[in-house]
Amino acid sequence: MVYTVGMNAQGNSHSVLQALEAVPVQAIEKLAELYELLDQDIAQRQPICNTSGRCCRFEQWGHRLYVSTLELAHFRHMIQISTQAQPVANTSRSAISFPLPLYAENGTFNPGCPWQIEGLCTARSARPLGCRIYFCDTTAESWQQESYEHYHQQIAALHQAFDIPYHYMEWRHALALLNPP
Ligand code: SF4
User: Fold this and answer.
1) What are the start-end ranges of the E strands in the chain?
2) pTM for the whole structure
3) Atom of ligand 1 nearest to the CA of 120
4) Nearest protein Cα to ligand 1, atom 3
5) In angstroms, what is the span from residue 44 Cα to ligand 1's centroid?
6) Which pLDDT belongs to residue 66?
7) Which atom from ligand 1 is nearest to the alpha carbon of 58?
8) Can you give the pLDDT at residue 2?
9) Which of 3, 64, 120, 127 to mutate to test the pocket of ligand 1 (most atoms within 8 A of CB)?
10) Domain boundary assignment for the chain
């Protein structure tokens, strides 16, 4: 399982937002180039998607997706989402929708990714590393952990090269810092 490592963004929302604002566009472009190489790498391996997007329904699938600061900045750039002036704690949760509501009525996260509609990803060009590399295909188990670590190290190196503070956040906590597009 390549998703379930790291911390969530609660408690350091301000520092994540500050870091996001400071990410230079050159770093986002470098990450886009890296994603392109990764996508070519994955295409050559020809893994099979057997479960029609069920892995994006995290509770049902039993795992979590995590992203770094630069991946979140790339996602925001691609989808053209602005950050909030204030972190989500000061915002009505019911107003946050990407394009499906992030929160349920009881204030907890809705199950699954709010970008998945009828089994399809609606943010495909922007999706982070974990989404690109995870396949339920059992033949993928032999290479995906190693590939995740390989590309994740390169993403960490981009943080260093561009002096971007490194945060590693659970996906929906990270989305909660952004305004709906
Ligand atoms: S961004 Fe797309 S691929 Fe990633 S979890 Fe959401 S719906 Fe799934």
Assistant:
1) 66-68, 116-117, 120-121, 168-170
2) 0.88
3) 7
4) 131
5) 21
6) 95
7) 5
8) 33
9) 127
10) 13-175
